[in-house]
Amino acid sequence: MKVGFIGLGNMGAPMAANLAKDHDVIGFDPVARPDGITMASSAAEAAKDADVVITMLPNGDILRAVAREIHPAMKPRAVHLDCSTVDVDSARAVAALAEEHGLGAIDAPVSGGIGGAANGTLTFMAGGSDAAFQTVKPLFDIMGQKAVHCGPAGNGQAAKICNNMILGVTMIATCEAFVLADKLGLDRQAMFDVVSTSSGSSWSMNTYCPAPGIGPVSPADNNYQPGFAAELMLKDLNLAQMAAAAADADTPMGQAARDLFAQFVETEDGKGRDFSAMLPRFEKRHRP
Length: 288
Ligand code: NAD
Known about the structure:
Blueprint lengths: L1 E5 L5 H9 L3 E5 L9 E2 L3 H5 L4 E4 L4 H11 L8 E4 L5 H13 L3 E4 L2 E2 L1 H7 L2 E7 L1 H14 E6 L5 H29 L4 H8 L7 H4 L23 H18 L4 H15 L11 H6 L5
Parallel strand pairs: 1-2, 1-4, 2-3, 4-5, 5-6, 8-9
Antiparallel strand pairs: 6-8, 7-8
């Protein structure tokens, strides 16, 4: 397949590198110049001959602008596969624009972070037509370990923000529980051994334990270098709250997690740190 890849940052560059082993990849990014990827001079140039154009961009406004640029340039029946995390409305608007141009569209945000992108073990949550999903499936198989087709356009983003709302809430709960355990004199290894095999277990505890030296290797073992940066978690929690407001869904835990990550990123030292650095944050605090 000929693949255009637009947005070659922390996630896009390793995803494109994996695809380039089996497919003909042409990239575009206004800033990044990753090794081993043939680069075009514009997004439209990268898109024009492609069977599938992948975008991996920071937000919905940039995605909409790039879609307006590339859709008129794309081949008939080509597919725009957006893997960015954006608001549900932008995903649906881009899918509608693609349809106007006779193109397929899939929104497929990812879970798995930069490690998953490098190792080709991402999980994709996809929204869009069956036909477009089948077209891009071989690319999911290279970039990831799993792709779940969640329904029509926008449903991939819906699945992603619901998942990450749970992740934000469980990470905070895991971090505050470690600090409570510390203050109660409970050894962290014992805490991990119990919780990771009991009903308090979660991905936050079992796979991405926020306590250094406990459980599998995680950003906590690397001085909380991201990993998954706190500001990206805040972005996803904000998207979840935007969607909840639009859909009239009551999400008090998601809202509390958003407020806490906003405080951590904007007024404390959370920016640039992994989202599991909530643990040292709680360590420094006392009960209000
Ligand atoms: P990043 O900032 O490293 O990369 C984004 C890239 O887009 C940059 O290289 C930037 O130059 C490029 N870009 C900006 N405007 C552009 C334009 N108009 N045309 C072409 N390229 C443009 O971000 P990232 O960490 O790679 O994340 C990308 C997306 O993936 C985001 O939506 C993010 O929320 C999501 N995501 C990130 C992670 C993670 O762990 N980093 C995990 C899951 C999902």
